[in-house]
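C-alpha coordinates for RNase adapter RapZ. Go.
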Amino acid sequence: MKIVIVSGQSGSGKSVVMRVLEDAGYCCVDNLPASFVPQLITKWTAAGETHLAISCDTRSATALQALPTTLDQLRAQGHDVKALFLTTNNATLIQRYSESRRRHPLATQPQSAQMTLLECIQQERDILAPIAAISHVVDTSGLAVQTLRAWVIDFVSADRAPLTLLFESFAFKQAIPLDADLVFDVRCLPNPYYDLALRPLSGLDAPVAQYLGGIETVRDMIGDITRFVSKWLPHYLHDNRSYLTVAVGCTGGQHRSVYCVQEIAKHFAAREQVLVRHRALAK
Protein backbone atom coordinates (compact mmCIF):
# COMPACT_ATOMS: atom_id res chain seq x y z
CA MET A 1 0.00 0.00 0.00
CA LYS A 2 1.14 3.55 -0.72
CA ILE A 3 0.89 5.50 2.53
CA VAL A 4 1.46 9.22 3.06
CA ILE A 5 1.68 10.53 6.61
CA VAL A 6 1.00 14.27 6.72
CA SER A 7 2.00 16.30 9.74
CA GLY A 8 3.12 19.81 10.55
CA GLN A 9 2.22 22.98 12.33
CA SER A 10 -1.35 24.15 12.65
CA GLY A 11 -1.98 26.73 9.94
CA SER A 12 0.82 25.51 7.67
CA GLY A 13 -1.43 24.04 4.97
CA LYS A 14 -2.19 20.46 5.99
CA SER A 15 -5.84 20.81 4.93
CA VAL A 16 -4.72 21.87 1.46
CA VAL A 17 -2.40 18.85 1.23
CA MET A 18 -5.10 16.42 2.32
CA ARG A 19 -7.48 17.78 -0.32
CA VAL A 20 -4.76 17.38 -2.96
CA LEU A 21 -4.18 13.78 -1.93
CA GLU A 22 -7.91 13.07 -1.91
CA ASP A 23 -8.17 14.42 -5.45
CA ALA A 24 -5.20 12.20 -6.38
CA GLY A 25 -7.11 9.09 -5.34
CA TYR A 26 -5.94 8.63 -1.76
CA CYS A 27 -8.33 7.63 1.02
CA CYS A 28 -7.77 10.40 3.56
CA VAL A 29 -8.11 10.27 7.34
CA ASP A 30 -7.63 13.47 9.32
CA ASN A 31 -6.35 13.82 12.90
CA LEU A 32 -5.74 10.15 13.57
CA PRO A 33 -3.81 9.36 16.78
CA ALA A 34 -0.56 7.71 15.78
CA SER A 35 -1.29 4.66 17.94
CA PHE A 36 -4.23 3.78 15.64
CA VAL A 37 -2.23 3.94 12.40
CA PRO A 38 -1.32 0.20 12.24
CA GLN A 39 -4.91 -0.91 12.88
CA LEU A 40 -6.26 1.43 10.25
CA ILE A 41 -3.77 0.22 7.64
CA THR A 42 -4.57 -3.41 8.43
CA LYS A 43 -8.26 -2.72 7.96
CA TRP A 44 -7.87 -0.75 4.72
CA THR A 45 -5.43 -3.28 3.28
CA ALA A 46 -7.97 -6.06 3.90
CA ALA A 47 -10.58 -3.89 2.16
CA GLY A 48 -8.39 -3.75 -0.96
CA GLU A 49 -7.38 -0.08 -0.73
CA THR A 50 -4.00 0.79 -2.25
CA HIS A 51 -3.54 4.49 -1.39
CA LEU A 52 -3.97 5.97 2.08
CA ALA A 53 -3.15 9.43 3.48
CA ILE A 54 -3.24 10.08 7.24
CA SER A 55 -2.93 13.42 8.99
CA CYS A 56 -1.35 13.34 12.48
CA ASP A 57 -0.68 16.49 14.46
CA THR A 58 -0.59 17.99 17.96
CA ARG A 59 -4.30 17.46 18.44
CA SER A 60 -3.20 13.94 19.40
CA ALA A 61 0.19 14.93 20.80
CA THR A 62 0.48 12.12 23.34
CA ALA A 63 0.49 9.49 20.59
CA LEU A 64 3.09 11.17 18.36
CA GLN A 65 6.09 9.64 20.11
CA ALA A 66 5.25 6.26 18.63
CA LEU A 67 4.99 7.49 15.05
CA PRO A 68 8.67 7.11 13.95
CA THR A 69 8.72 3.49 15.15
CA THR A 70 5.37 2.82 13.51
CA LEU A 71 6.62 4.09 10.13
CA ASP A 72 9.70 1.85 10.34
CA GLN A 73 7.49 -1.14 11.09
CA LEU A 74 5.20 -0.38 8.15
CA ARG A 75 8.16 -0.14 5.78
CA ALA A 76 9.47 -3.47 7.10
CA GLN A 77 6.09 -4.96 6.18
CA GLY A 78 6.58 -3.83 2.58
CA HIS A 79 4.42 -0.72 2.52
CA ASP A 80 5.58 2.33 0.53
CA VAL A 81 5.54 4.95 3.29
CA LYS A 82 6.25 8.65 2.80
CA ALA A 83 6.17 11.28 5.54
CA LEU A 84 5.44 14.91 4.66
CA PHE A 85 5.88 17.69 7.23
CA LEU A 86 4.69 21.27 6.68
CA THR A 87 6.27 24.19 8.48
CA THR A 88 5.86 27.96 8.29
CA ASN A 89 7.67 30.90 9.86
CA ASN A 90 6.18 32.54 12.93
CA ALA A 91 5.21 35.80 11.22
CA THR A 92 3.20 33.99 8.56
CA LEU A 93 1.44 31.79 11.12
CA ILE A 94 0.51 34.78 13.27
CA GLN A 95 -0.87 36.55 10.20
CA ARG A 96 -2.92 33.51 9.19
CA TYR A 97 -4.43 33.16 12.67
CA SER A 98 -5.20 36.86 12.73
CA GLU A 99 -6.99 36.65 9.39
CA SER A 100 -8.94 33.50 10.26
CA ARG A 101 -9.72 34.62 13.84
CA ARG A 102 -9.28 31.02 14.97
CA ARG A 103 -7.58 29.91 18.18
CA HIS A 104 -4.46 27.82 18.09
CA PRO A 105 -5.27 24.16 18.95
CA LEU A 106 -2.90 24.21 21.92
CA ALA A 107 -4.71 27.26 23.32
CA THR A 108 -7.84 25.14 23.79
CA GLN A 109 -6.04 22.78 26.17
CA PRO A 110 -6.21 23.60 29.91
CA GLN A 111 -2.44 23.45 30.45
CA SER A 112 -1.87 25.98 27.64
CA ALA A 113 -4.86 28.27 28.13
CA GLN A 114 -2.77 31.18 29.41
CA MET A 115 -0.18 30.99 26.64
CA THR A 116 0.12 33.64 23.93
CA LEU A 117 -0.26 32.68 20.27
CA LEU A 118 3.50 32.92 19.73
CA GLU A 119 4.14 30.68 22.74
CA CYS A 120 1.65 28.12 21.39
CA ILE A 121 3.37 28.17 18.00
CA GLN A 122 6.79 27.60 19.56
CA GLN A 123 5.54 24.84 21.85
CA GLU A 124 3.94 23.08 18.89
CA ARG A 125 7.19 23.41 16.93
CA ASP A 126 9.06 21.73 19.80
CA ILE A 127 6.49 18.93 20.13
CA LEU A 128 6.63 18.15 16.42
CA ALA A 129 10.43 18.35 16.04
CA PRO A 130 10.93 14.52 16.17
CA ILE A 131 8.34 14.10 13.40
CA ALA A 132 9.97 16.78 11.25
CA ALA A 133 13.30 14.99 11.64
CA ILE A 134 12.01 11.86 9.88
CA SER A 135 9.92 13.63 7.25
CA HIS A 136 10.29 15.50 4.01
CA VAL A 137 9.86 19.09 5.18
CA VAL A 138 8.15 21.79 3.10
CA ASP A 139 8.28 25.43 4.18
CA THR A 140 4.97 26.96 3.08
CA SER A 141 5.88 30.52 4.12
CA GLY A 142 4.72 32.82 1.32
CA LEU A 143 3.97 29.84 -0.90
CA ALA A 144 1.05 30.05 -3.31
CA VAL A 145 -1.58 27.32 -2.87
CA GLN A 146 -1.24 26.12 -6.45
CA THR A 147 2.53 25.77 -5.96
CA LEU A 148 2.05 23.71 -2.80
CA ARG A 149 -0.38 21.49 -4.69
CA ALA A 150 2.17 20.90 -7.47
CA TRP A 151 4.97 20.14 -5.00
CA VAL A 152 2.81 17.62 -3.13
CA ILE A 153 2.00 15.80 -6.38
CA ASP A 154 5.71 15.71 -7.26
CA PHE A 155 6.51 14.32 -3.82
CA VAL A 156 3.96 11.49 -3.81
CA SER A 157 4.74 10.62 -7.44
CA ALA A 158 8.43 10.12 -6.74
CA ASP A 159 9.65 6.54 -6.63
CA ARG A 160 10.60 5.21 -3.23
CA ALA A 161 14.38 5.40 -2.81
CA PRO A 162 16.82 5.07 0.12
CA LEU A 163 17.28 8.84 -0.01
CA THR A 164 15.37 11.56 -1.84
CA LEU A 165 17.46 14.59 -2.70
CA LEU A 166 15.64 17.89 -3.09
CA PHE A 167 17.47 20.88 -4.54
CA GLU A 168 15.77 24.25 -4.17
CA SER A 169 16.72 27.77 -5.12
CA PHE A 170 15.64 30.70 -2.99
CA ALA A 171 16.04 34.45 -2.50
CA PHE A 172 18.00 35.63 0.52
CA LYS A 173 15.87 38.78 0.57
CA GLN A 174 12.89 36.51 1.33
CA ALA A 175 14.74 34.60 4.10
CA ILE A 176 16.34 31.17 4.21
CA PRO A 177 13.70 28.43 3.80
CA LEU A 178 12.92 26.53 6.99
CA ASP A 179 13.01 23.17 5.18
CA ALA A 180 16.69 23.42 4.21
CA ASP A 181 19.17 20.88 5.58
CA LEU A 182 22.16 22.36 3.75
CA VAL A 183 22.37 26.01 2.62
CA PHE A 184 24.77 27.44 0.05
CA ASP A 185 25.20 31.13 -0.75
CA VAL A 186 26.03 32.00 -4.38
CA ARG A 187 25.60 35.79 -4.08
CA CYS A 188 29.32 36.17 -4.68
CA LEU A 189 28.89 35.12 -8.32
CA PRO A 190 28.38 37.61 -11.20
CA ASN A 191 24.74 38.67 -11.34
CA PRO A 192 22.85 38.56 -14.68
CA TYR A 193 20.37 41.01 -13.17
CA TYR A 194 22.68 43.86 -14.17
CA ASP A 195 22.47 42.87 -17.83
CA LEU A 196 19.27 44.54 -19.05
CA ALA A 197 18.73 41.84 -21.67
CA LEU A 198 18.94 39.09 -19.05
CA ARG A 199 17.14 40.84 -16.18
CA PRO A 200 13.59 39.71 -17.06
CA LEU A 201 14.73 36.12 -17.65
CA SER A 202 15.55 33.38 -15.13
CA GLY A 203 18.20 30.72 -14.70
CA LEU A 204 15.91 28.36 -16.60
CA ASP A 205 16.29 30.39 -19.80
CA ALA A 206 19.03 29.53 -22.29
CA PRO A 207 20.60 33.04 -22.52
CA VAL A 208 21.09 33.16 -18.75
CA ALA A 209 22.40 29.60 -18.66
CA GLN A 210 24.83 30.39 -21.47
CA TYR A 211 26.01 33.55 -19.69
CA LEU A 212 26.58 31.87 -16.31
CA GLY A 213 27.95 28.66 -17.81
CA GLY A 214 30.70 30.64 -19.46
CA ILE A 215 32.05 32.02 -16.18
CA GLU A 216 34.79 30.02 -14.48
CA THR A 217 33.85 31.00 -10.92
CA VAL A 218 30.28 29.83 -11.52
CA ARG A 219 31.53 26.46 -12.75
CA ASP A 220 33.86 26.23 -9.74
CA MET A 221 31.03 26.99 -7.31
CA ILE A 222 28.78 24.33 -8.86
CA GLY A 223 31.65 21.83 -8.75
CA ASP A 224 32.42 22.59 -5.10
CA ILE A 225 28.79 22.23 -4.00
CA THR A 226 28.42 19.01 -5.98
CA ARG A 227 31.55 17.52 -4.45
CA PHE A 228 30.49 18.55 -0.93
CA VAL A 229 27.06 16.95 -1.26
CA SER A 230 28.57 13.83 -2.87
CA LYS A 231 31.09 13.45 -0.05
CA TRP A 232 28.53 13.67 2.75
CA LEU A 233 25.61 11.78 1.16
CA PRO A 234 26.81 8.40 2.50
CA HIS A 235 26.81 9.84 6.02
CA TYR A 236 23.21 11.00 5.69
CA LEU A 237 22.28 7.55 4.40
CA HIS A 238 24.10 5.96 7.35
CA ASP A 239 22.02 8.22 9.63
CA ASN A 240 18.86 6.62 8.13
CA ARG A 241 17.78 9.87 6.53
CA SER A 242 15.07 9.49 3.91
CA TYR A 243 15.11 13.08 2.68
CA LEU A 244 17.80 15.72 2.26
CA THR A 245 17.02 19.27 1.13
CA VAL A 246 19.87 21.33 -0.33
CA ALA A 247 19.06 25.03 -0.68
CA VAL A 248 21.04 27.38 -2.90
CA GLY A 249 20.36 31.08 -2.53
CA CYS A 250 21.14 34.32 -4.32
CA THR A 251 19.76 37.82 -3.79
CA GLY A 252 16.53 37.55 -5.78
CA GLY A 253 16.34 33.80 -6.35
CA GLN A 254 15.89 34.32 -10.09
CA HIS A 255 19.16 33.81 -11.94
CA ARG A 256 22.26 32.45 -10.19
CA SER A 257 20.66 30.12 -7.63
CA VAL A 258 18.22 28.76 -10.20
CA TYR A 259 20.97 27.96 -12.69
CA CYS A 260 23.19 26.39 -10.02
CA VAL A 261 20.37 24.19 -8.72
CA GLN A 262 19.58 22.97 -12.22
CA GLU A 263 23.20 22.05 -12.89
CA ILE A 264 23.77 20.40 -9.51
CA ALA A 265 20.55 18.38 -9.81
CA LYS A 266 21.67 17.05 -13.20
CA HIS A 267 24.74 15.54 -11.57
CA PHE A 268 22.72 13.49 -9.07
CA ALA A 269 19.68 12.66 -11.22
CA ALA A 270 21.25 9.50 -12.67
CA ARG A 271 21.90 7.84 -9.29
CA GLU A 272 19.50 9.37 -6.77
CA GLN A 273 15.81 10.23 -6.50
CA VAL A 274 15.96 13.98 -7.21
CA LEU A 275 13.35 16.73 -6.93
CA VAL A 276 13.88 20.36 -7.95
CA ARG A 277 12.09 23.49 -6.71
CA HIS A 278 12.52 27.18 -7.34
CA ARG A 279 10.86 29.11 -4.52
CA ALA A 280 11.18 32.65 -5.91
CA LEU A 281 10.04 31.65 -9.40
CA ALA A 282 7.03 29.87 -7.89
CA LYS A 283 5.81 33.19 -6.52
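The chain has a mean pLDDT of 91.
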